[in-house]
User: Fold Glycerophosphodiester phosphodiesterase domain containing 3a from Seriola lalandi dorsalis.
Amino acid sequence: MSNFLYFILPALGGYTLTSLYLLKNPHILHRRKRTAFYCTHISHRGGCGERIEGTMEAFTHAVQHGTQMLELDCRLTHDGHVVVSHDENLLRQTGHDVTISSLELQDLPLYKERLEVTFYAGHYSSGADRKLALLEDVFRKFPEIPVSLEIKENNHKLIEKNGSMPYSFSMNRGVLLLLLFYSGLLPFVPLGESLLQFYFPRIINRCGCTLVYLCMLSQCVHLFVCNEDDDIKAAFEVGATGVMSDYPTVLSNYLSRNRSQDRI
Assistant:
């Protein structure tokens, strides 16, 4: 037993020290990624706290109020059109118990006149535009604005329609990322993802070193959904490069105040 410990303890010590060193100096093993964009202000579902989620009006409003990236989800209609929608079943959004994949584009119902903000219970948005947007219309109207596109289903046809682009960590890959971090293996594993977009419960503070590591590799780290100043501040403090909010004007006002004080 003593001979075993004689060999294993130095090995574990060496492994731990090497892992910690490489965690702080990732460029020794990995090439720094070149990011095509850098966004601190991201509008969740187009800023769904201020306009109805996923509509052209919401996206336009967000861009007018300083957003640097639009986050949205997409689905495929029965006749092959890619539309912007978080849900496959439209009961929550429209009041109609139908699925997008069962309907042709012309038969999609309108959004409700008032829609509750998913991550801000008791708060509602409204707007003049209640039509589900076409993804191609978003790209055409905002050709210079980065779009964070979440494909909500394992649909190869839908994935093929969106072509090749930088991709973010899936939920499974995010869990693997944490396992690699806590096992000390993270510095030794190459990462193909360019983005990490993740919910921001305060427990994420315990994983702050993971975010810093990804930032050092020039991967964008976006935390959501931050709808109040305290949450926005906390997200940046743990290492987020960008914050996603349902309220683009709230986020813009926060960034404006704190940039003037050199806090971001």
Q: What stands out?
A: The longest strand covers residues 69-76. Residues 127 and 159 are 30 Å apart (CA to CA).
